[in-house]
C-alpha cells in the first residue's frame, strides 16, 4: 500500500470489526486465539504499527520496557540486566525480556514486536542492530536505549573498547614484552555485528610500540573459557610462542591460563595473560584485567529510560571509564627476570 496502513485495513482483511482487531492486537483475553493470531499475522504482513497516540488514549503508557539480550547464561549479560532491572523496578516499570540469540530469534523479534506495540521503550543489552532493524524499532514510536553497546544515534551507555584494549596491551608492552599474542573472541550468532574495538586496540598498541603485527599471533575463537583454552593451545603450537597473551575477556583469559598450566608452563613466569571485564573469578584466580563497570552500565541505561518516560531527556551517549587491575598473571618476560 502507498498510503499509511490503518487499523481498518487490518480489520477488513482479517474479516473482523476494528474494535475486535484493536483488542486482538492488544492481547485481550476475550478474543479467540485463532482470531488474535490471524489479526496479528495480517498486521505483521502490512507492517501495521499501533498509533502511540491512540494507545495513550486507550489507556496511557503500558508501563513496560522490552529488553533485548543475545545471551542469558553469561555473567556479563546477567550483570547488565541486574543493574537495569533494579532501576526500572524502582521507577515502577515492568520488564519484558526477549532473548534474541540466533538469526531466527532476531527475525521473529523484529517482525512481531513493532506491530503489537506492547512496550514504552526498548533497551538493547550489548545487542548491535543493523539499519533495517533500527528502522523497524523506530516504527514503534518508542524510546530506544542501548547498554553495553551503541545503537545508531540513540542514547547509549558503554565503555570505549579501544581504550580498554589499549590499557591491557600497553601494560604488556610496558612490562617489556615484544612477542604478544591475542585471543580474539567473536560471537557467531551476531552475524556481521562483531565489535572490533578490542582487536583494533591490539594493532594500535603494537604499532605505537614499533612492534610488527604478526597474523600467526592472533587466534580467533568464540566467546568462552573452553574456546580460550583452544586459542591458547594454537598459540603454544607456534615455533616461537608468545611471551604474553591479551584475551578479549576474562573468561577467555582463564581458559588460556588453564592450557598453560596443563602444559607445565608458569603464569606469569613463562607467559603473562591479561583479560578484560573484571569477572568475579578474576580476583579469585589472581588474573590481571581491565575492569569495566558492567552493572553500572545497565543501571545508567535504566535511569535514561525512566527519565525520558517521565517527560525528561535521556541524554546523549555515555562512555564509562575502565581501569587497569594488575594482579598476579602478568609480569616481565622470563628472560628479563
What does it look like?
- 44% of the residues lie in helices and 16% in strands.
- It is built from 13 helices and twelve strands.
- The chain has helices at 7-14, 18-25, 33-46, 52-59, 75-90, 103-116, 131-138, 161-174, 197-208, 225-236, 250-262, 280-284, 294-309, and strands at residues 64-69, 94-99, 121-125, 143-147, 156-159, 180-186, 218-222, 244-247, 272-274, 289-291, 318-320, 323-325.
- A six-stranded parallel beta sheet has the order 2-1-3-4-5-11.
- Strand 8, helix 11 (250-262) and strand 9 form a beta-alpha-beta unit.
- It starts with 6 loop residues before the first helix and ends in a 12-residue tail after the last strand.
Write a brief structural summary.
This protein has helices at residues 7-14, 18-25, 33-46, 52-59, 75-90, 103-116, 131-138, 161-174, 197-208, 225-236, 250-262, 280-284, 294-309, and strands at 64-69, 94-99, 121-125, 143-147, 156-159, 180-186, 218-222, 244-247, 272-274, 289-291, 318-320, 323-325. By secondary structure, the chain is of the alpha/beta class. The model is unreliable at 55-59 (pLDDT under 50).
Amino acid at each position: 500500500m502507498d498510503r499509511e496502513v490503518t487499523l481498518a485495513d487490518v480489520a477488513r482483511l482479517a474479516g473482523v470489526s476494528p474494535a475486535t482487531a484493536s483488542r486482538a492486537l492488544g492481547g485481550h483475553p476475550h478474543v479467540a486465539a485463532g482470531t488474535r493470531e490471524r489479526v496479528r499475522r495480517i498486521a505483521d504482513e502490512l507492517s501495521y504499527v499501533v498509533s502511540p497516540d491512540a494507545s495513550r488514549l486507550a489507556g496511557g503508557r503500558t508501563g513496560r520496557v522490552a529488553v533485548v539480550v543475545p545471551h542469558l547464561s553469561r555473567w556479563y549479560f546477567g550483570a547488565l540486566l541486574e543493574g537495569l532491572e533494579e532501576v526500572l523496578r524502582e521507577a515502577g516499570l515492568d520488564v519484558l525480556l526477549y532473548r534474541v540469540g540466533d538469526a531466527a530469534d532476531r527475525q521473529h523479534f523484529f517482525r512481531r514486536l513493532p506491530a503489537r506495540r506492547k512496550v514504552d521503550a526498548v533497551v538493547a543489552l550489548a545487542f548491535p542492530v543493523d539499519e533495517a532493524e533500527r528502522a523497524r524499532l523506530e516504527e514503534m514510536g518508542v524510546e530506544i536505549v542501548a547498554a553495553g553497546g551503541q545503537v545508531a544515534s540513540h542514547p547509549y551507555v558503554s565503555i570505549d573498547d579501544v581504550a580498554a584494549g589499549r590499557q591491557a596491551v600497553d601494560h604488556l608492552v610496558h612490562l617489556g614484552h615484544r612477542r604478544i599474542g591475542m585471543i580474539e573472541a567473536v560471537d557467531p550468532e551476531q552475524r556481521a555485528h562483531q565489535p572490533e574495538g578490542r582487536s583494533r586496540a591490539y594493532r594500535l598498541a603494537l604499532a605505537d610500540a614499533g612492534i610488527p603485527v604478526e597474523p600467526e599471533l592472533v587466534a580467533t575463537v568464540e566467546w568462552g573459557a573452553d574456546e580460550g583454552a583452544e586459542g591458547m593451545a594454537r598459540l603454544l603450537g607456534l615455533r616461537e610462542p608468545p611471551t604474553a597473551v591479551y584475551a578479549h575477556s576474562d573468561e577467555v583469559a582463564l581458559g588460556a591460563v588453564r592450557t598453560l598450566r596443563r602444559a607445565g608452563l608458569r603464569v606469569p613466569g613463562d607467559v603473562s595473560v591479561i583479560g578484560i571485564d573484571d569477572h568475579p573469578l578474576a580476583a579469585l584466580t589472581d588474573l590481571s584485567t581491565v575492569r569495566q563497570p558492567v552493572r553500572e552500565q545497565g543501571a545508567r541505561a535504566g535511569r535514561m529510560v525512566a527519565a525520558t518516560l517521565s517527560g525528561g531527556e535521556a541524554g546523549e551517549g555515555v562512555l564509562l571509564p575502565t581501569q587497569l587491575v594488575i594482579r598476579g598473571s602478568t609480569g616481565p618476560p622470563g628472560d628479563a627476570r
